[in-house]
Design brief:
The complex is a heterodimer of chains A (214) and B (812). Chain A has 214 residues and is mainly α. Chain A has a single domain, classed as Tetracycline Repressor, domain 2, CATH 1.10.357.10. Chain A is built from 10 helices and no strands. In chain A, helix 2 crosses helix 3, helix 8 crosses helix 9 and helix 9 packs antiparallel against helix 10. The two termini of chain A are 24 Å apart. Helices cover 23% and strands 24% of the residues of chain B. Chain B has 18 helices and 35 strands. By secondary structure, chain B is an alpha/beta fold. In chain B, helix 4 packs across helix 5 and helix 5 runs parallel beside helix 7. Chain B folds into 4 domains: 281 residues, Glycoside hydrolase, family 3, N-terminal domain (TIM Barrel), CATH 3.20.20.300; 193 residues, 3-Layer(aba) Sandwich (Rossmann fold); 132 residues, Jelly Rolls, CATH 2.60.120; 114 residues, Immunoglobulins (Immunoglobulin-like). Classes of the chains: A mainly alpha (214), B alpha/beta (812). The interface between A and B is medium-sized, with 29 and 25 residues.
């Protein structure tokens, strides 16, 4: 899941963090490739090190453990998702923002390993001590900010009813997205996430849209 | 052994003895990029060659005479039809005759070892027997019209990464049973007049110096009496290559032989008899192609590349090779009156008709898939929806979008200036790209300027820029930008896969674009880019979803571009480029019926396969692409293709994957089990097997028996089958042999085709070839016959229809 770069909450990075940027980038790329082919559980830090061209201790210097590497991978993935959603242009607002979530879910459905990773890591990362905890908080904050602005914009242009419960709609929608993905991971062929999400969005349109839709 | 009475041996000997050493050596290098030296004293004409094998391009890489653009090699091979290959050979010969070209450089008969190989689109198959038989039909037909073929690349050139330096490490059995086999079959069945030696090394020796392979196997053991030429710029050393059996160094005029061979002979490193043998082979070739001792005549009245005759041929060949991979509920063929159709995807309008690299052809036209479907189904019932971006490297602007600022004609203006800024020459060209060659009209230019007025219906935000390496300045009203585009490394780095640079600029209708570039050190292709500003994938997919939800059928057109299907570079993933998988998944979730057309030659991953109703694998279909797709989709022509290579489900699967050499060496460690052979050995489950293809009929196989044996070799299998479908169809009966020793992989040993109407049945006799039923014994350096085992009749090994034991009692 993702949100436009303008809505991202950037954390300050130390000099030390910046120093190893090149090696990190290479390691992340290697991890993405390995996770994509072999999945998260079957991939070892040692394999990532070999593909990166680093010693295991060299890799561990940049990423203290596999989970840290994973959260870096998720950030990278998030940047790619932003490109997919916004393509460097302004974020869609109004109902178009919600329509673009359909495209995003369609994309995820073709990458089951990535959904599996997201479901697993987002559950683990609810613990405040988890290395990916801040990533998860940023993720939800950015997503909510964007979708809330999208609905508020829709209220201004008249495509969203003024009495729409903006925050609740946004939290519900994120819950639907995450919940669909969790069920899909548990039973991969039991349903089509894109079709299910469209049902949810049609309900939103019917309840809170105006005849000025699109 | 065949005796060619046409070859004037006495005249050749006389000519050889009349020439001095220097003259002889000069003849053994190219005169230019694609031609050889003539010699009036012996009556030798200049021999002209052209790249092949998807069309006879002539000497210019871009902007030359329009030529027939054929379907790509895998699409042709997917017909599994020798007659189609012969038709292709004949067509290419006629195209060559029309351009007074003596030799067409092809076919490419390296194997699909790893699906990541960049040049898969140009090679026939992962199977050596299928490759050899199809290539032999092509070569025979081409040469029957007096045009020489050049099977390539000899040897073990299965991938492109570090191709000029990589040392391919291949055990002797794999060389014999896999990589040499297509060359052996072509040599025995079609007697090619030339063979091309590859860039790479084989087991420590570079291919142009490989005495064991060229002198040993090809010339001595097989009796090849033709000429061995180098791949372009492949020859590294003079004496070593001349002694190994290389006969001709390409291209010229400046070659390692020209510089050093005479000295090597004078120093005694190369015998004059060796030189004489090379010249004798050159003159034999010249006699065969009609360049010695008297010049040939060239037929007139050859069909134009855009004639009705050619259009029918190219449409039919492409459509017959297209392969139905999935067709749930008989969604295909789409019949007129099928309701509304949403045609979705960039490849519908930006249809990729050919791969990239030296095989590139300038076609008279390319019918896009959108155009083809609109004319077949009616514009009223078709809605066109653009999809997601598919390219990171942009292409030259279509000529229809630009006007020459001076003449107002379609195309661009090219002006060459000298160092003082004086205009040297100004030309109109019909397309928006051109080649800057050492011997071309722009060779002396200090600065080259390309200019055009853009034909836009209304002001729009567009990407404006150029393709091709060099230093550039691009200017249009309100925008000036200077930048450098770097070439690729290696031979033809400026020619193939030219990189682009473009920026988004607001353009008025009729805006003028001027791009200037300075001198550049190597041959290059340059051109103008004008294309729509990109939008996000999510926005494109949202639009597609709306259209798909409202239509009776969604046809999603996806595929690769020349960034994936190209000479000079291997792929890193088989995933479709860009966000095309997301596009298909989104459309499939909402559409009543989803048909996917895959416009690609290499295997692609299909993570959405379970969610769509039908998939047509359409290859890179050549100039009639859209009409061929429409004919296949509507059933006007049955897409009766069978896959020529196995499709993995995920990246990394299959017996051979990574084409990246380690420390300069690429180990063919999977041995003799590439492609389906390895999948079968590992009992693995690919997405689609080699040989898979549904067509539009259904087939019931009844009795099958091995009816002819020769020692332990199966020579014939007989099988009765019935078309139990509702449409006329063509079936390809495939016979495989599973050896008794599990160390030896399964292999195709024969196939036969039959066309039957609904309810009709026939008994088909499949002739089986002894050549794939041999095992090479490296110790004794000879072949053994495979003993025993099982005969399997299958529609691809995922759909076995009969298994027959090979009677061990008949072992000899």
């Amino acid at each position: 899941m993702s949100y436009p770069p303008g809505y991202r909450i950037e954390r300050e990075r130390s000099r030390a963090e910046k120093a190893g940027a090149a090696a990190r980038e290479k390691a992340i790329k290697a991890a993405i490739e390995l996770f994509s082919v072999g999945g998260y559980n079957k991939t070892s830090i040692a394999e990532v090190a070999v593909r990166t061209g680093l010693s295991q201790s060299g890799l561990l210097h940049h990423f203290p453990n596999k989970t840290a590497l994973l959260s870096a991978v998720l950030e990278q993935r998030q940047a790619e998702d932003s490109e997919f959603l916004f393509g460097g242009a302004a974020a869609p607002l109004g109902w178009a923002a919600f329509d673009s979530l359909v495209s995003l879910v369609a994309r995820n459905s073709t990458r089951p390993e990535w959904i599996g990773l997201f479901v697993r890591i987002s559950a683990e990362a609810t613990e405040s001590t988890h290395p990916a905890h801040q990533w998860l908080i940023d993720h939800y904050t950015g997503m909510r900010t964007w979708l809330i602005q999208a609905l508020q914009h829709g209220q201004k242009t008249g495509e969203v009813r003024n009495d729409a419960p903006v925050e609740a709609i946004v939290r519900n929608t994120i819950a639907v997205l995450d919940g669909l993905q969790q069920q899909w991971v548990a039973e991969p062929h039991s349903m089509n996430m894109v079709a299910e999400l469209r049902v949810h969005l049609a309900g939103l349109h019917a309840a809170w849209g105006t005849t000025n839709n699109h | 052994m065949t005796i060619d009475t046409e070859i004037p041996h006495a005249t050749i000997d006389e000519a050889v003895s009349s020439l001095d050493l220097r003259t002889k050596i000069r003849l053994l290098s190219g005169a230019r990029m694609f031609s050889l030296h003539g010699d009036t004293s012996i009556g030798l004409e200049e021999i002209v060659m052209s790249d092949g094998p998807t069309g006879v391009r002539g000497e210019a890489v871009v902007g030359g005479r329009p030529s027939c653009l054929l379907p790509n090699a895998t699409l042709i091979a997917q017909t599994w039809n020798r007659n189609v290959l012969a038709e292709v050979g004949e067509l290419l010969a006629e195209e060559a005759q029309d351009q007074q070209t003596h030799i067409v450089l092809g076919p490419t008969i390296n194997l699909h070892r790893t699906p990541l190989g960049g040049r898969l689109f140009e090679c026939f198959s992962e199977d050596p027997y299928l490759t050899g038989v199809l290539a032999a039909a092509y070569v025979s037909a081409l040469q029957a019209k007096g045009i020489g073929a050049s099977p390539k690349h000899f040897l073990a050139n299965e991938s492109e990464t570090q191709r000029t330096t990589v040392d391919c490490v291949v055990d002797e059995r794999s060389l014999r049973e896999l990589y040499l086999l297509p060359f052996e079959i072509v040599e025995q069945d079609a007697t090619p007049w030339t063979v091309m030696a590859s860039y790479n090394g084989v087991n420590g020796t570079t291919a142009t110096e490989h005495d064991e392979l060229i002198n040993g196997v090809l010339k001595s053991e097989w009796g090849f009496d033709g000429l061995v030429m180098s791949d372009w710029f492949a020859t590294k050393r003079a004496a070593e290559s001349a002694n190994a059996g290389l006969d001709l160094v390409m291209p010229g005029p400046d070659t390692v032989w020209d510089r050093g061979l005479e000295k090597a002979v004078r120093a005694g490193h190369v015998s004059e008899a060796t030189i004489d043998d090379h010249v004798r082979r050159l003159l034999t070739l010249a006699a065969r192609v009609g360049a010695f001792p008297t010049a040939r005549s060239w037929p007139k009245d050859i069909a134009r590349p855009d004639s009705d005759k050619r259009r029918e041929q190219l449409r039919r060949i492409a459509a017959e090779g297209m392969t139905v991979l999935k067709n749930d509920g008989g969604v295909l063929p789409l019949t007129p009156g099928t309701g509304t159709v949403a045609v979705i995807g960039r490849h519908a309008t930006d249809t990729v008709a050919q791969g990239g690299g030296s095989a590139r052809v300038r076609p008279p036209h390319v019918v896009s898939i959108a155009e083809g479907l609109e004319s077949a189904l009616g514009t009223d019932s078709v809605t066109l929806v653009d999809g997601v971006e598919t390219r990171t490297r942009l292409m030259a602007v279509p000529p229809s979008m630009v006007r020459d600022p001076e003449s107002g004609e379609q195309g661009i203006r090219v002006r060459a200036f000298d160092e003082a800024g004086e205009l040297l020459e100004s030309r109109h060209i019909e397309v928006a790209e051109l080649e800057v060659a050492e011997d071309g009209w722009l060779a002396g230019a200090h600065r080259i300027e390309l200019s055009a007025d853009v034909a836009l219906p209304a002001p729009a935000r567009m990407r404006v820029g150029v393709i091709g390496p060099g230093d550039w300045t691009v200017a249009t009203s309100g925008h000036t930008e200077s930048f450098t585009i770097t070439p690729h490394q290696g031979p033809g780095g400026g020619l193939h896969r030219p990189k682009s640079h473009a920026s988004v600029v607001p353009l008025e209708a009729g805006a003028r674009i001027t791009a200037t570039t300075g001198h550049h050190y190597e041959m290059r292709i340059i051109g103008l880019v004008v294309t729509s500003a990109p939008r996000s994938s999510a926005a494109a997919i949202s639009e597609a979803v709306e259209a798909a939800a409202g239509a009776d059928t969604a046809v999603v057109v996806v595929g690769n571009t020349q960034e994936q299907e190209t000479e000079g570079q291997d792929q890193k993933t088989l995933a479709l480029p860009g966000d095309q998988d997301a596009l298909v998944a989104a459309v499939a979730a909402v559409a009543r019926r989803t048909v996917v057309i895959v416009n690609a030659a290499s295997p692609v991953l299909m993570p959405w396969i379970d969610d769509v109703d039908a998939v047509l694998f359409a290859g890179l279909p050549g100039q009639e692409a859209g009409d061929a797709v429409a004919a296949a989709l509507t059933g006007a022509i049955e897409p009766a293709g069978r896959l020529v290579t196995t499709f993995p489900r995920h990246d990394g699967e299959g017996p051979a994957w990574d084409p990246n050499p380690t420390a300069g060496r690429l180990s063919y460690s999977e041995g003799t089990a590439i492609g389906y052979r390895g999948w079968h050995r590992d009992q693995a489950d690919p997405l689609f097997w080699f040989g898979h293809g549904l067509g539009y009929a259904s087939w019931d196989y009844q009795e099958a028996r091995v009816h002819q044996m020769e020692g332990t070799i199966v020579r014939g299998v007989e099988v009765t089958l019935t078309n139990i479908g509702t449409r006329h169809g063509r079936e390809t009966v495939q016979v495989y042999r599973v050896p008794r020793d599990p160390a030896d992989p399964v292999r195709l040993i024969g196939w036969s085709q039959v066309s039957l109407g609904p309810g009709e049945h026939d008994t088909v006799q499949v002739t089986c070839d002894h050549r794939p039923q041999r095992v090479w014994d490296p110790a004794e350096r000879r072949w053994h016959q495979l003993p025993g085992g099982t005969i399997v009749i299958a529609r691809g090994l995922g759909d076995v229809r009969a298994s027959l034991p090979v009677d061990s009692g008949q072992e000899g």
